[in-house]
Fold each of these.
Amino acid sequence: MTKKTQGRLIRNSKICDRIYIVGRGDWGGTPALTKKFDCNIYLIDGGSELALVDNGETFNLFKLRGNIASTGLDIRKIKKLLITHNHFDHVANTWLLKKALGAVVFAGKGSYFPLKVGRYFKNGSTIKVGDLSLKVYSVPGHTPDGFCFMTKIDGKKIVFTGDTVIGDQPKNGRGRVGWFNAMWGSNLKEYIKSLKFIKALDADIILPGHGLPQLTRKKCRSSMVNCLKRLNNFGNFKELESIIPLAFDRKGVEKCFSVGANRQVNLKIKFIKPPIKKK
Ligand SMILES: [Zn+2]
């Protein structure tokens, strides 16, 4: 990725025709668009309806709404919330957005954490967002419920990878992948299989769960090679940066989901609801 491209992505939320980045933390030294620890939040413009890929952690809805508005698209058209995997930094706003927008939640099965889902993804099935089709594929490894989504725009294959592929990053090195933790069901064998599968998709654009996207096929390819190298080295324990033990306990996480989020519900729904236009 050239400096020019990075600069463009930092200033401008449009990644390519019909896809925008509307939320992002400061992972890898990129300036946060929403909250510090947020995942990347993508907005898909399907014409008659919109969808969000992941939705970040709590307390960022003002900024998120502003970022969506700055694309010129109407937040009320968001009718689908697509979840790459059920980690707090990707899903904590799900309930609020679902409630405020009347959107349907789509996610994978098998998550360690609780998340009320409207529909579960089926491996290889297609989801429509307006006139765009997204193929959904099961990619366990980082978590058992991991899914990636692939769509084609202007003949280009675009793959949303969640944390399965974070890939080459300017400040954080090559081939970054999601963290491992036995508590949330990470599995090295499955992870390598999932990476090989995504590599075989041969994407033109990879949109990861954190950090900056890969915007050319050449970069996607080399980044995938580096991801696989990293995981293949994992067994040697040389790559200690990949093994970050997290001190979450289940009760603490559940508390974040239920108590902390719900307390803010009424307040937030008021703000996320777009003002009603007077005729
Ligand atoms: Zn994750």
Note: The domain at 3-268 is CATH 3.60.15.10 (Metallo-beta-lactamase; Chain A).
Amino acid sequence: MKRCYMCRGNLQKRLVDVNIEGVIIKDVLAEVCERCGEQYFDTNTSTFLQNVARYVTEQRRAVISTTTKLSESTA
Ligand SMILES: [Zn+2]
């Protein structure tokens, strides 16, 4: 059985909700430490989560810059 890198506790496969930049991704398969709650993801899942994080960051930046331009033009 795999063990937690942080505390050497046992890892259990579970579906978890992941919060990325304030966006909740539900039912993500993870290995969760029974003792400290640390979550581990496989390579595909990590890539997926990183892509979501990048997308959210880019979209938010686009919206914020648009909003700033609008408020400048109306001011
Ligand atoms: Zn742990």
Note: Residues 5 and 38 are 9 Å apart (CA to CA).
